[in-house]
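Standup notes
- DV: blocked on the single-chain target, sequence here:
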Amino acid sequence: EKLLRVYERAVTNLEASRLLEPNNVDAMHNYAISLAKKARLLSHDLPQREELFQRCYNVYAKALSSNSKNRPLIVAWGNTLFRHARLNLDRSHPKMFLLLVRSAEKHALALEILRDDSSLQSLGSVLLLARKIRETFSGSSR
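- DV (later): unblocked, structure below
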């Protein structure tokens, strides 16, 4: 509860900073992170959680529209998609899988910009979870 109030205040403050500097990519990045963290805390209100994640993804898209090679932003978006998918493990299989596909795309793009162990590990984590989900829903394992 207390942590949720902290993120509510952060989101409000970062929304205000975006009004002052609408093209500030760092402010958009921080805003998107705050939206995602607040969303992850809303386990009791799924519609609001999903709306916050969608707002977050819209902010990432706007921030990347001004610099499509901003690797930290791409990685953060990929991580947010991955965490969002993990929150849905007990829910809709197609939605989880779509989130994981989008996450894998972001991490692959980050790898194209800079090949490093961190991005490779992130992509591997996404693919492992996707395999686990596929096996769980298909009832098979290898």
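- Follow-up: DSSP finds six helices and no strands in the chain.
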